[in-house]
Amino acid sequence: MKIAVTGKGGVGKTTFAAILARLYADEGKEVLAADVDPDANLGLALGFSDEVLESIVPISKMRKLVEERTGANSENRFYKLNPQVSDIPDTYAKTANGVKLLVLGTVETAGSGCVCPEHVMLKRIINNLILHRDDVVIMDMEAGLEHLGRGTTENMDQFIVVIEPGARSVQTYKNVKRLAHELGVEQVHVVANKVRDGRDEAFVREKIPIEDLLGVIHYNPEIMDADRQGCSPYEFSKTVVDEIRVMKDKIDQVS
After folding, report:
1. Phi and psi (nearest 5°) for 101?
2. Which CATH architecture does the domain made up of 2-254 adopt?
3. CA 204 to chain centre
């Protein structure tokens, strides 16, 4: 199963992705969590130690590795479009709490449609994760829609859009659904996070088709407590974990 978790910045997609990964790992599944967010903090949410996190260099920043695999360097403007990457997940992933973490990073570019060695490398790795691994792969995508425009997430089994109860988040969901369908991904679901009261929940249920809504995560200060202490929310809030567990069961049913 290959899942891309996306949404606007600050909506809680990393928290959701981390807890979902931990739930699958606790079932005994082989889980690989890929962090494709330039502000990479999925490892912290998964419960990795500071020591391990400080040792991680995103694949997109490993210039020597990119040069070695693509053949690109300052003197050579030509490079391979199909570099060998199948060994990279097992070579560079770190493991904690039953979850392998691969920090891919992203390519900072002006405008969409970038074709550069780093972009080619990341796209090949992502395609390898999607097409050639039997693990449960959960990708914490960068905020916004650029990754959809670059085509790095085609062939996913499903997209999960994390939203807040607000018009802008709902618009993001609509945009993701449209672009995902253009990539051939039919399964696009919504998780409504930080729902405070009945008005919030009613808004979500009015705006999101029932067949797309996985469920609701109610606002819970325990998540902020976990963040302040640098801990995984998985150990901090049984209530939120149980809410996401119900959604995971729905994900399993539609996959």
Report:
1. -115, 125
2. 3-Layer(aba) Sandwich (3.40)
3. 22
